[in-house]
Design a protein that fits this description.
Layout (H helix, E strand, L loop, with lengths): L6 E8 L2 E7 L2 H11 L3 E2 L2 E2 L23 E7 L3 E6 L3 H11 L3 E2 L2 E2 L1 E4 L16 E7 L5 H8 L3 E5 L6 H13 L6 E6 L8 E8 L2 H11 L12 E3 L12 H6 L1 H10 L16
Antiparallel strand pairs: 1-2, 3-4, 5-13, 5-14, 6-10, 6-11, 7-8, 9-10, 12-13
Amino acid sequence: MSQDDVHILSLQTHDGHIEAKILTRASRGRLIVFALDGTEFRDKIMASEVSETVSANAMGELNKRQVDTLTITWYAPSLNMIATYLSMETARQNQQALDGKIVGGRRIKVEMNRPPIGGPALRYYNPASVKIMGLPINTPVCDVSSMTGSSSVRPIKSNTYDLQQLLQDLRQRLISLPRIKITSFDRVADNNSEGLVTVKVRFDSWEDANTVRDSLDGKRLRPEYPMFRAHLPEPLYFRSIIPIQQYQAQKRLWDSFAKDSEKGPRVYIDFPASRQ
């Protein structure tokens, strides 16, 4: 992927964290999310997600989005394992060969194993080892041993939980929120290769959806549950492109929209620089 394939749209600071909005192709965006989400950078754990795309139609008006619909995603149950080798060189070669491999319909993530921070687990640490994450929940150790070429494979703490129970808990949590009205709660087709579960929840208003987003994003319902990522489109954005001649003929009407936007929806009128 070259620099020309990625464009940084904005950099903003929220609650001491930096948020970057990046424009790229959807397929490459998913690869970026897979590579970066949950990884450590400058002593911080990064979070990334693919946002919905918005395109303009032939009339120059942006397609209407369901701005009152909250998209909630999290990682499906999975297994993590450690594979140990006889040398660092062999471990590095296998890490590069295995990372991103599809196993049982799931794309696994493989990285060099890092030493734990203190505790009894430090006694078992071997630098010539790799950490394999995102394996399907029913993957036998013997299959991982065969795949990695390592005779020393052991399971470690994994993202295991009851998915159906989580869905029930999440739905009940949303229903019980005071002064929040839900109109629909639907689980959409899972992104099996990336190991993601997604539900779309529609609310009575964008404000309700935004309140729930703030209460869920980056949070867990229980310690054993994975972290939620919640995405909500910005309030409806409507853009109309008209010829300059039409604007001049309707100038009084368009200017009144912009003036009245102080009391209602915001309206902006922009002109191409070459026609000012």
